[in-house]
């Protein structure tokens, strides 16, 4: 750190304690840097001071200030509570909500340096990301979320009053089990066009007529022809049915909400609530690393700027660096503390690296990133990236060889049939692209989460519901959980359910679990 | 634009509803955990809340997830030190913790044990669910119950000593304002004005006022009359204003209880049997603690002689010698007379024994129990701890021990006395429940 002399009268604060005045003064200084130097684009901010107990509360109801009641939130609460009291786990320093105004929570126990860090991180970093990233723009409604949660909470409370805890809990349990499958991932698939299907079938029949060779009749007689006809009819019925239900449907909750025969209106509404909340969080799941990277980059830039301007003391800067380096710490794979990539660490490192490529590129950077290397517009470049990418595509686009070397990344092939793991690539010329592709895939939520679809309903028969898991690379579903979840689907559907695993390559059915209504009754 | 909002004063415990739902959900597991906790604690040491551990599996929130291993996959790890492309690594054994971030469960949650702290109330509620003092005990409790008085709002009638001045005056004031009763100050003002005018008249030569003053005086006099009339008509304090503090009597149960633990410690009582007895006593203590603010425990052990001892000696030392049960009953009687007058103490006793007794002692026990002890006790429970093998024999042959033979007739006639057999730890709780069940009489002893 440079040893500039600081005149004490310029400092925003001199002791570790904070009061509302220092908070305001500090916020104003941070805002000045965020808006005028970094030119961030943010929702209005609301900073709320809360106690650690309130932080625990908020933490356990998936970070939202308002949430309906459910036992699973209580479970999270008692676990966090124990961890916190025993000192195994610190509390999150901050919680920030994607809403307009953007609400950030700060804890009263924090020092003023921590409050400054949190405000820079959440009120400007996350806030900017929420407001500008395309996924959030497309999928979330920052203006309406708090009202919606308020509605959801009181609606579910009313249902508990009217229909009892148990009935509501049953629906919520089932809905939560399907929350990950309750989002629309892509634009809706085109509805199969029945007329076109029939036309195609007719043409095929005509072709068969034209190429009909009477000689075939001389072959030993079978009822093959009839079978073909039956098969054709059956297929047409299936297509008709699928069109009627809008199948295949990847949003299981949506399908059940609209089509489960025996659900009450209030039960459908609860499914809808859980589905909407799942959808609201879906962009966050896809941009965790970028979002944290953006917030860390912003708080780092702001705190350094405060220091450079002589607004905070060296002591405060030291304190900040201590927090900061703990947040962006990445344990190596053979470290006890390792539990995967730390999204804060990877995100921050990538942002800093892009900054470097923009202002101080090497020859290698020019080759890899001709568009941005040396453009001397680091913040603009980053803002572009924050707006238009998600974790997976961001890594694929921006992970540099230098960062792979710095973090000493390597890629493992884990092939089921092999007794060994194999190092498929490391941080060298041969490996960069492979490592990058693999890391990007790890951040692709459509790869991480199983590909589930409702494919058919036996509407004329016993109303059996068919759900397919498309199995990529032989990676199966966790069996016990899948069966429990299937049980929940059966409860909502009210009739039998079949889960089929289909191989992605060949399309053949690999295995199948059947639930009859009798199974579900137990 | 910044809004800073101080939310610290907001009610905390937003998660309370969630916590209660969680407890409801995990009830069976929590109950099991609570029961096992009790085994490892001292008798008087189980009334605090407790850290309990329940299996995480039972609170699983399932979903469709990929299996942790299997299939063909690849992943990236940080911190390579020595690997080059093509290196082979033996698969890590056990668990898939090393398998990289992509397999970590979405909320970082494993299936391991789930640990949390029960509050004292939660702990006891779970423990004493469905248990209450037998109805008959409540009746006998009522007879000895003292009453305490507590405020219970206000009433419109009562004794003058209970008059609530503040309430009464508040009502009176409201009524006076409502009915526009003139204030004393207003009347005095009128009177002063009148006397001023009258004084003015006396000063004048003809002793008469001017025409205007004359008119004013008339108006004033009329006003005064009206005011006085109103004052008379509208009382300063009306009976409808009065309010009296009301007190109600609340039953105030004796807030102290003493529990006698009697046990045969002669050679025939094995460590295991003592362990069973301990669990029973613990339950009893916990149970009493729930009802009374202050519970004392008296430990009396006996062989052929009896003595009062501390808990340590009671459970962990072993004597040899004959068995004379009546000696323990005598000791209890002595302690009772010395230290625990019946009008101040709720007295409970539990006796644990393997049922052996000196053959001529039975009659003495019966007499002591029926005539001296039971009239003083709220409840006296006898649990007979027997060997599992013996239990089988008894079950087959309807065999009875000496003590059982002596006690059984008392149980038939005296509802304050109950006896039960216990053979293994699992019996303790059910037996205790049965002894203290809500409707013991109906359940049949």
TrEMBL record, chain A:
A Pfam family cross-referenced in the UniProt record is SpoVR
User: Per the database record, which ranges form the SpoVR-like C-terminal domain?
Assistant: 450-503
Give the matching InterPro entries. Spore_V_R, SpoVR-like_C, SpoVR_N, Ycgb-like
Where would you find the membrane-spanning parts of this chain? none
Highest taxon above the source species: Bacteria
What sequence ranges are listed for the domain SpoVR protein-like N-terminal?
17-445
| PANTHER family, alphabetized | STAGE V SPORULATION PROTEIN R (PTHR30029)
Q: What is this protein called?
A: SpoVR family protein
Question: What organism is this sequence from?
Answer: Thalassospira indica
Automatic annotation (TrEMBL), chain B:
Q: Which InterPro entries match?
A: UPF0229 (IPR006698)
Show the coiled coil region(s). none
Domain of life here?
A: Bacteria
- Ranges for the region named Disordered are 87-112
Q: Which family does it belong to?
A: Belongs to the UPF0229 family.
What is the protein named? UPF0229 protein DY252_08800
């Amino acid at each position: 750190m440079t040893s500039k002399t600081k005149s004490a009268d310029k400092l925003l604060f001199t002791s570790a304690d904070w009061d509302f005045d220092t908070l305001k003064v500090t916020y104003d200084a941070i805002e000045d840097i965020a808006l005028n130097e970094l030119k961030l684009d943010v929702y209005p901010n609301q900073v709320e001071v809360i106690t650690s107990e309130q932080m625990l509360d908020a933490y356990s109801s998936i970070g939202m200030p308002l949430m309906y009641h459910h036992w699973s939130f209580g479970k999270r609460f008692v676990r966090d509570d124990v961890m916190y009291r025993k000192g195994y786990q610190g509390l999150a320093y901050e919680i920030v909500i994607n809403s307009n105004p953007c609400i950030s929570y700060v804890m009263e126990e924090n020092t003023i340096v921590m409050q400054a860090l949190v405000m820079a991180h959440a009120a400007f970093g996350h806030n900017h990301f929420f407001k500008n990233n395309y996924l959030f723009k497309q999928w979330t409604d920052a203006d309406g979320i708090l009202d919606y949660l308020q509605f959801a909470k009181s609606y579910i409370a009313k249902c508990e009053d009217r229909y009892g805890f148990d009935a509501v809990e049953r629906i919520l349990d089932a809905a939560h089990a399907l929350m990950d499958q309750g989002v629309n991932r892509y634009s809706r698939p085109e509805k199969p066009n029945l007329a076109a299907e029939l036309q195609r079938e007719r043409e095929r029949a005509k072709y068969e007529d034209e190429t009909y060779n009477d000689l075939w009749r001389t072959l030993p007689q079978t009822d093959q022809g009839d079978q073909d006809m039956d098969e054709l009819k059956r297929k047409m019925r299936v297509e008709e049915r699928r069109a009627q239900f809008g199948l295949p449907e990847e949003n299981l909750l949506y399908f059940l909400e609209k089509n489960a025969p025996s659900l009450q209106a209030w039960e459908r509404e609860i499914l809808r609530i859980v589905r909407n909340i799942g959808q609201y969080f879906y962009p966050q799941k896809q941009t965790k690393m970028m979002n944290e990277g953006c917030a860390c980059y912003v708080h780092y830039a702001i705190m350094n700027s405060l220091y450079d301007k002589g607004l905070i003391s060296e002591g405060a800067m030291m304190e900040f660096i201590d927090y900061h380096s703990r947040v962006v710490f990445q344990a190596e794979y053979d470290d006890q503390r390792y539990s995967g990539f730390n999204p804060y660490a990877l995100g921050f490192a990538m942002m800093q690296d892009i900054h470097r490529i923009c202002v101080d590129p090497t020859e290698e950077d020019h080759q890899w990133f001709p568009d941005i290397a040396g453009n001397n517009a680091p913040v603009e470049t980053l803002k572009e990236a924050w707006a238009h990418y998600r974790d997976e595509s961001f890594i694929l686009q921006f992970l540099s060889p230098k960062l792979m070397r710095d973090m000493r990344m390597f890629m493992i092939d884990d092939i089921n049939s092999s007794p060994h793991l194999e190092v498929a690539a490391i941080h060298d010329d041969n490996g960069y692209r492979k490592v990058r592709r693999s890391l990007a895939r790890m951040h692709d939520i459509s790869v991480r989460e199983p590909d589930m679809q409702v494919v058919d309903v036996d509407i004329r028969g016993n109303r059996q519901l068919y759900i397919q898991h498309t199995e990529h690379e032989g990676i199966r579903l966790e069996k016990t959980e899948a069966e429990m979840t299937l049980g929940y689907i059966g409860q909502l559907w009210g009739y039998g359910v079949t889960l089929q695993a289909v191989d992605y390559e060949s399309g053949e059915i690999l295995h199948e679990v059947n639930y009859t209504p009798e199974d579900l009754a137990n | 634009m910044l809004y800073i909002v101080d939310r610290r004063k907001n009610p905390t415990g937003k998660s309370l509803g969630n916590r209660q739902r969680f407890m409801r959900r995990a009830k069976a597991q929590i109950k099991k955990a609570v029961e096992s906790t009790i085994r490892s604690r001292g008798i008087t040491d189980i009334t605090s809340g407790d850290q309990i551990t329940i299996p995480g599996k039972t609170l699983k929130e399932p979903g469709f997830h990929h299996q942790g291993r299997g299939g063909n996959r690849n992943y990236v790890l940080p911190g390579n030190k020595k690997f080059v492309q093509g290196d082979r690594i033996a698969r890590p054994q056990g668990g898939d913790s090393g398998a990289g971030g992509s397999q970590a469960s979405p909320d970082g949650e494993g299936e391991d044990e789930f640990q949390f702290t029960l509050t004292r109330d939660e702990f006891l509620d779970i423990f004493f669910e469905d248990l209450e003092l037998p109805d008959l005990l409540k009746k006998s409790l009522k007879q000895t119950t003292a009453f305490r008085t507590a405020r219970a709002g206000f009433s419109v009638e009562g004794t003058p000593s209970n008059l609530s001045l503040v309430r009464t005056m508040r009502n009176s004031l409201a009524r006076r304002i409502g009915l526009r009763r003139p204030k004393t100050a207003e009347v005095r003002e009128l009177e002063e004005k009148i006397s001023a005018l009258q004084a003015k008249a006396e000063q004048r030569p003809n002793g008469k006022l001017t025409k205007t003053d004359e008119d004013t005086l008339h108006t004033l006099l009329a006003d005064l009359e009206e005011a006085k009339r109103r004052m008379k008509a509208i009382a300063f304090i009306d009976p409808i204003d009065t309010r009296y503090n009301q007190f109600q009597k609340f039953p105030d149960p004796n807030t102290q209880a003493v529990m006698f633990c009697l046990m045969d410690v002669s050679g025939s009582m094995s460590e295991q049997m003592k362990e069973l007895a301990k669990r029973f006593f613990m339950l009893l203590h916990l149970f009493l603690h729930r009802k009374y603010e202050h519970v004392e425990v008296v430990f009396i052990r006996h062989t052929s002689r009896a003595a009062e001892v501390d808990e340590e000696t009671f459970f962990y030392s072993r004597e040899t010698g004959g068995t004379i049960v009546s000696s323990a009953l005598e000791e209890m009687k002595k302690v009772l007379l010395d230290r625990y007058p019946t009008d101040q103490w709720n007295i409970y006793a539990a006796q644990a024994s393997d049922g052996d007794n000196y053959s001529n002692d039975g009659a003495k026990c019966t007499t002591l129990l029926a005539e001296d002890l039971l009239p003083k006790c709220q409840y006296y429970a006898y649990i007979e701890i027997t060997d599992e093998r013996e239990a089988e024999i008894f079950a087959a042959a309807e065999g009875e021990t000496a003590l059982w033979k002596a006690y059984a007739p008392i149980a038939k006639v005296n509802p304050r006395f109950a006896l039960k057999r216990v053979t293994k730890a699992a019996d303790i709780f059910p037996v205790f429940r049965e002894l203290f069940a809500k409707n013991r009489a109906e359940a049949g002893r």
